[in-house]
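stage 2 :: seqdesign
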């Protein structure tokens, strides 16, 4: 809905007071300037509402001046489109690395800075971390990303749906199923079609297998950074079993390109369904013993309990979902609150804690493992027969009115990190506008807040408990 500046700023005020939760902010280039889009949802609801503001002179009222969670996206869209956010609290470039970057100063006796990155010792994506410390205590952390900007959204615009769908699944490789799922649902809403029931059930199974694999990897990595590498080795083996199961059943370890607009490309045979059930039963027995080991290892508990505390109020203001938000008291899960197939027929119980520390974020992952197994078993037991895909409308067969009418769709789905938002505008089978928002946009500033007061040696532990995606924010 196109709005004026007054309505735009009223929406920003709703974000600031918590009446509305920030979802995404992006811009769309026009011949006569830009249109800025703001997506939000009412507190406790999964219903996304979209506002649009024309910026013919490339100026627009800053959302970040009212709501800090919008700052990173606001800075990114200003870099990409040459825009200026009026009254912005932080006008520094986000993606432009060609100019000197002034980190926020911290002064005081004994305060010094530790620069880390963007190149790291491990095989991870590039990101710069600037620590201001006093002795070993972290006073402030400032994160700078944008080193792997791929212009993915720009590469999707103007291209056919199938090409854009492939790119959507490559936004962040560990969430390829979730991104493909979100993009497909947005396209389906725009085109007025629905995936067949069997396809939606298969989508749910793939999404939960992706969640299992990533949670196993995260749990082990957190324990490894807490000085307990044995757990990392054992959970890595569980993760590998899930990936091999996915390869056997769906033809790809990450299940990439298996979800497409209209449905899925791969079916699940009866033999493979039985293999999924037997494998999950075995995995549950193994991880139960591992979690008992976690509970009984005092040295590990000493590292994770109370470390990296995220204030529930900050989690709420930043709109953190997933295991980060739920570990800090936020009771939101798009599978339940946005209610999309196949989860609309399931009873989704959302685990949440209030401790807000590394231990709580790990325990949320543990609870979600159990939930994923329950969801997969239910979907397999109720798997309907039928087609795998609904054909997309052929642009050549559209009426004159339909050919001239661009259609808009959006979706909110639950990835392993949290809710992923997808928005598209489709015209004659091509993507005119697109936005794909990763939950990591909110995790990075939450990590900056949570690390204050911790020691430098605990940063890897805290960072891994958040596990934000670099690539997901470099669109």
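stage 2 :: out
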């Amino acid at each position: 809905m196109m709005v004026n500046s007054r309505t735009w700023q009223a929406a920003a005020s709703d974000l600031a007071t918590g009446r509305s939760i920030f979802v995404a902010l992006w811009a769309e280039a026009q011949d006569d300037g830009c249109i800025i889009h703001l997506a939000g949802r009412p507190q406790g609801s999964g219903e996304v509402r979209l506002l649009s503001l024309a910026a013919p002179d490339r100026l627009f009222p800053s959302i970040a001046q009212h709501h800090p969670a919008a700052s990173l996206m606001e800075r990114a869209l200003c870099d990409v489109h040459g825009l200026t956010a009026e009254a912005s609290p932080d006008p520094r470039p986000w993606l432009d690395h060609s100019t000197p970057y002034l980190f926020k100063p911290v002064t005081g006796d004994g305060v010094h800075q530790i620069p880390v990155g963007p190149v790291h010792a491990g095989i991870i994506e590039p990101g710069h971390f600037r620590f201001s410390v006093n002795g070993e205590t972290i006073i402030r952390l400032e994160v700078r990303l944008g080193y792997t900007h791929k212009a993915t959204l720009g590469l999707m615009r103007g291209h056919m749906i199938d090409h854009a769908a492939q790119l959507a699944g490559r936004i962040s490789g560990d969430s390829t199923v979730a991104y493909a799922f979100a993009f497909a649902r947005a396209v389906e809403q725009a085109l007025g079609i629905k995936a067949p029931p069997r396809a939606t059930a298969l989508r749910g199974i793939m999404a939960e297998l992706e969640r299992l694999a990533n949670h196993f990897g995260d749990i082990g990595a957190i324990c490894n950074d807490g000085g307990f590498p044995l757990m990392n080795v054992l959970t890595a083996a569980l993760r590998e079993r899930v990936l091999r199961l996915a390869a056997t059943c769906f033809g790809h370890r990450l299940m990439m390109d298996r979800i497409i607009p209209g449905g899925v490309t791969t079916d699940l045979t009866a033999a493979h369904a039985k293999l999924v059930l037997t494998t999950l039963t075995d995995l549950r027995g193994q991880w139960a013993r591992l979690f008992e080991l976690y509970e009984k290892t005092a040295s590990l508990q000493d590292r994770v309990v109370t470390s990296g505390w995220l204030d529930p109020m900050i989690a709420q203001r930043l709109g953190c979902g997933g295991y980060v938000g739920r570990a800090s008291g936020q009771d939101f899960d798009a599978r339940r609150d946005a209610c999309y197939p196949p989860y609309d027929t399931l009873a989704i119980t959302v685990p949440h804690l209030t401790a807000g520390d590394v231990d709580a974020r790990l325990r949320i992952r543990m609870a979600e493992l159990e939930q994923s197994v329950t969801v997969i078993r239910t979907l397999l037991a109720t798997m309907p027969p039928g087609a795998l895909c609904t054909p997309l409308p052929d642009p050549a067969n559209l009426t004159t009115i339909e050919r001239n009418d661009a259609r808009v769709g959006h979706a909110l789905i639950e990835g392993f990190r949290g809710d992923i938002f997808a928005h598209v505008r489709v015209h004659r089978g091509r993507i005119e506008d697109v936005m794909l928002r990763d939950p990591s946009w909110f995790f990075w500033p939450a990590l900056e807040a949570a690390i204050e007061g911790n020691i430098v040696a605990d940063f890897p532990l805290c960072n891994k408990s958040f596990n934000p995606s670099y690539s997901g924010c470099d669109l």
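stage 3 :: structure notes
- The chain has three domains: 5-86, 111-144, 152-473.
- The domain at 5-86 is CATH 3.30.460.80 (Beta Polymerase; domain 2).
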